[in-house]
Every structure is written in structure tokens, then in C-alpha cells.
Predict the 3D structure of the following.
Amino acid sequence: MVIATAQHFGQAALAATTLDELNNLLHAITHEMGFQYFALSHHVDVPRAPQPALRLHNYPRDWEAYYDAERFGPSDPVHRASHLTSVGFCWSMLPRLLALTNRDEDFLARSRRIGLIDGITIPAHVPGEAAGSCSFATSWGKTPRPEWMPLVQFVGTTAFESARRLVGMRRAQADRPRLSDRQRDCLYWAAQGKSDWAIAKILGISHETAIQHLKEARGRYGVGNRTQLAIHALYDGALSFTDALRR
Amino acid sequence: MVIATAQHFGQAALAATTLDELNNLLHAITHEMGFQYFALSHHVDVPRAPQPALRLHNYPRDWEAYYDAERFGPSDPVHRASHLTSVGFCWSMLPRLLALTNRDEDFLARSRRIGLIDGITIPAHVPGEAAGSCSFATSWGKTPRPEWMPLVQFVGTTAFESARRLVGMRRAQADRPRLSDRQRDCLYWAAQGKSDWAIAKILGISHETAIQHLKEARGRYGVGNRTQLAIHALYDGALSFTDALRR
DNA sequence: TTGAAACTCCCCAGCTCTGGGGAATAGCGA
DNA sequence: TCGCTATTCCCCAGAGCTGGGGAGTTTCAA
């Protein structure tokens, strides 16, 4: 019974006390759902990450070495696609989700060659933390069963949450920079490509004041230019894409 | 059969062409899952939001007026809790998820008084977009059935994704510019705050070449500065936050 | 009342970015 | 072979951004 499987996994995963335990649970459920491989990770350059990052998987060993050597952690097309949606997706739908570069194609071809034929990736995002996902992959001949999607979605999300708790990912709301209203106003327009001068006109303040607000905003985020300022604000939700893309 | 219900909803939701259609689907599934109310929304001050924000619900009308008057959109404790996790949670567990202020307690008490006794909220985050969630609530006497959690999780996530697509949160694939590998390399570093000169050093090319690649990249996206270039590339997945935030 | 924070305004030097040109090489497919 | 794209390199002028100063008001909470 599918729903019982899900429930059982959910309870076990959230009760797990070590990553090893979770790893074993993932092994079992992966096969139970008809997959051969799983990979649960943060989308960072794991060996070089400054913060502890998640990575649990049973992909072939060669693959991990290749992956790290090429630093795919942050630019893996599957991961990039998972940043665009809140639901799980089949790898076969990648070309419809984003424009693949030559490198992406090479990467995917290579993955297939070592046995990762098709898979499903479940995104897992928590504002202010590194993006992550939980993938399940099939090898030769097998294809993911679409009717199991609800189960896969639940398992992936639950597994990720369990892992997050186990490595103590939760970041304090406190250490997130807070912008003042005026700083956000200026950033809002800056993110739309307006110059300091234009922002000043729009807000009805002097050129120097607009400069001052953005200077202060950069300081709060500890960055040295507008581009990084906008990116950080987007990431922590101070700014949204719908704010930034209306030109 | 639970899994069939989920599957059917998933297909219908992702095939829906209007918010009305989705609204009807949510009505139906809400009752099918044993709830009375649903609310799918972006966590913003909806009536004052500069950009279109999602909000579909069948909560009592009084509630919406109260909610907007008090500007709970961004500070609703249920929403705040949903920013701390990637899985759904029961409202009854709120006190274990965050420290509730007096205002929070008042808000929850008032919600209960008008018939929102208990509920489950499924977070839905996409990096760079306003945070959101999909909640299902019960009225008098009924309590959420924990064994339906996997189903609720799936339905909530899928409904949110469907709504996101319907309000055009995501741009069509067709008009998405494609960057060359080298352009993306330059942008990758530019998004990390590197100057043209630094990018050139890193990639081992001349200063002028780096400038040229970024010039061309701006042209492809039809934007006039680095900030907008980075934002557009982040939005369409050519660049990921983990690329950009690794300083 | 004291202080902190927000908001406002000003100056300047120097670095960085942008848009306008031009041009050569290599590869790939029609 | 021709044309297209990607990649590399170069010059320049002007606009824009950044970091370093300083300084006034208001508001709100301790």
C-alpha cells in the first residue's frame, strides 16, 4: 500500500538520529519505489563549502570524484532546474525547463553513460539556506513510474528535512541583514536597472541621498557592489524577482 | 484510493488553464481530504503588493478583511513558521516551531473563533520569488488525519506550482536567451562581484575579452547593466544562487 | 533626556562599467 | 566554399559606481 509506505518512511525519517540511519532508510525506500540510486544534497561545491553541506547518495563512486573535480555542485543543470520550481520533475523534461549549454549536454551524456539513465528530482528550498534537492534515479531499461510521483515528492521532501535537522542547518533569523524602508526602496529600483540619478528622481530625493542609501545597504549585506547587493536581497527574500524584473 | 486521488489532482492541477479552474479543483480536493478550508498564497501584503501576488482561498470573508487590515501577510505566524522548513506542519505544532508573541496568540485565537480550528500548511519556496504556502484547515471537532500527510504535502505543492504557472511567475522557454559557455563563465564571476579585470585574470583572458563577453551577454538579455544581467540569468536558471552567493 | 536609527544632503577622487567602433582565428554545417 | 557562431583581442569617451569624508533633522524607545 503506497500511502502506508510513505507514512512509514516519513515517521522513520523524522525520528532518525544519525545521517547513517537516514542513509539506510533512503536505500530501502529507493528500491521500494523502483529506483536504483538516490542523491540528497545541498547545491554547493561540497568539498570546498565554508558551511557544513549535506550530501547523501549511492551514486557510483567514479561519479562523485568527477563531479567534484569539475565542480558541478553549483552548476549542475539538474540543480539549476530545481531552482525554478517547487515540484519534482523528470530529468527527461530538462530541456523544457532551461536552456542547456554544451557543458550541460556533456554532463548529462556522461551521467547516462555511467548508468544514471533517468530520474526524478525533488527541490527543497528554505529561504536563507543553500538550495538543495533529493533525486532518485533509474538505471538501464527502467523508467520512473509517474503514478508514484506523489510518493516520490513526499519522500524527497521529508528526507531532505530530516537531513537538515540532523546537520543543524537552521539559520537564525537574526543574522539576516535588515534593510531600512528607504534602503529597500532604492534597491528596488536599482534592481530594475535604474541609475542612482534615476532612483533619486523617482523617489524625489537628492542624487547624493540615493547613493547614501545604497552605500548603507551594501554595508549591511557586506558586499561591494550593486550586483551582489541585489542577488543577496533576492536570495533572502528582501526583494523578489517580480520586483526586479519589471523593467 | 489515496494515491489515485493525488495523481488525479496532480494531473488536473498542472493542466488547469485558469485560476478559477484551479480554485474548483482545490475546493473539491479540500473536502475529499477531510478539510473545510484551503488558502494558497504568497506571503506578501497582497492588497499593497506592487506586483501581482497569488491568493486563492475559501476562508470566511471577515477573515480576509481582518487579515488585510492588520497586514498579516508578511507576519502571520503560520507563514513565518513555513519559512523555517521545507515540509508541511500542523498548526498545533506552531509553539514548537517558533516563539509566539502576544500578537501571534491573538491572531491564532481569532482564527479559531471564526472556525479555523486546526490545519496543515505546506511551504512552497522558489529561490528569489516571494515565499508562499498552501494551507488546509479543519473546523469544529475535526482534526487533520496524520496518515494523509503525504497526500496533503503533494496536493499543496502541486497546487502552488500550478498557481505559479497560471499567474505567469515563469517565463516561456522560447524567448529565453541562451548564453555561450564563455559568456556564462564571465557572468558567473561577475555575479560574485568580480570586476572585469578580475574576471579576465581568473579566466586567463585579456581584460578586453572579458568586457566583450559581458557586453554580448547584456545584449542577449536586452539589458543595460550587470545587475539586471545577473538577475535575469538567475531568474531563467542560467545562473544559480549557489553560483552567485559563493564569495 | 539621552541615544540610536532612519532619513536627508553635500563633496571628491578614482575605479569600473558601458556603448561605440574594429578585427582576426577557428570550427561547423549547408 | 560561404556564412554563421564562438572566441579572442584592441581603442576610446563618457557615464556610473564606490569608498572616503562630513553634517543636519526627526522619531521613537530606554
Remarks:
- The CA atoms of residues 3 and 97 of chain A lie 29 Å apart.
- Strands of chain A lie at 37-42, 55-57, 89-90, 118-124, 132-138.
- Chain A touches chain B through 72 residues (CB under 8 Å).
- Residues 195-197, 211, 214-215, 218, 224-226 of chain A lie near DNA strand D (CB under 10 Å from a C1').
